[in-house]
Design goal:
CATH superfamily of the domain at 4-128: HUPs
Number of helices: 7
CATH class of the domain at 4-128: Alpha Beta
CATH topology of the domain at 4-128: Rossmann fold
Length: 179
């Protein structure tokens, strides 16, 4: 019988947009935990492209085949949300040592103020460099093929990003090399 403290696990993030890296962590965690709450939140330090409800819907679409996953939105501190829903663990994905450094500080604070542990899953190798911020920058200022972007995010997400962010095709300016 599962320990009631770890029966419910929260995987929080802005998921703006959902990437294959996020989905990899979710699919792997779904095999480890009885109930996984994917918590779509807001980060006041980031400017979101999609509303919380749009992000929730995209996440639902891409996790619909996982019966032990529930996608919810929340505001405020993650640790307070986790306590409110009875979660015993906060799950975080780690891409590199910079992520680890930042996440350790947050995990320590969450344990002190909320008595909730944080568990880290390392991102799979093919997703180590996948970043929602980088993906948004590529769409907003770059010129690319949607099929290439679909290596990082689901194709429908790439298309939604294009609709929201795409401006006129960028004019590429190349200065002449000196003679």
């Amino acid at each position: 019988m599962p320990n009631s403290k770890i029966d419910v696990v929260v995987f929080p993030g802005t998921f703006d947009p959902v990437t294959y890296g996020h989905l990899d962590i979710i699919r792997r965690a779904a095999k480890l935990y009885h109930r996984l709450i994917v918590a779509v939140g807001d980060n006041p330090l980031k400017s979101a492209v999609f509303t919380p409800e749009e992000r929730r819907q995209m996440m639902i679409e891409h996790t619909a085949d996982l019966p032990n996953i529930k996608v919810m939105t929340y505001t405020g501190l993650t640790v307070e949300f986790a306590r409110h829903i009875g979660a015993g663990v906060i799950l975080r994905g780690i891409r590199d040592n910079m992520d680890l450094h930042a996440e350790l500080e947050i995990a320590t604070a969450n344990r002190i103020i909320g008595d909730i542990e944080t568990v880290f899953l390392m991102t799979s190798g093919q997703h180590v460099l996948t970043s929602s911020t980088l993906i948004k920058q590529i769409v907003e200022i770059g010129s690319y093929d949607s099929q290439h972007l679909a290596r990082l995010v689901p194709l429908d997400v790439a298309q939604r990003l294009e609709e929201r962010l795409r401006r006129q095709p960028p004019a590429v300016r190349v200065d002449r090399l000196p003679d």
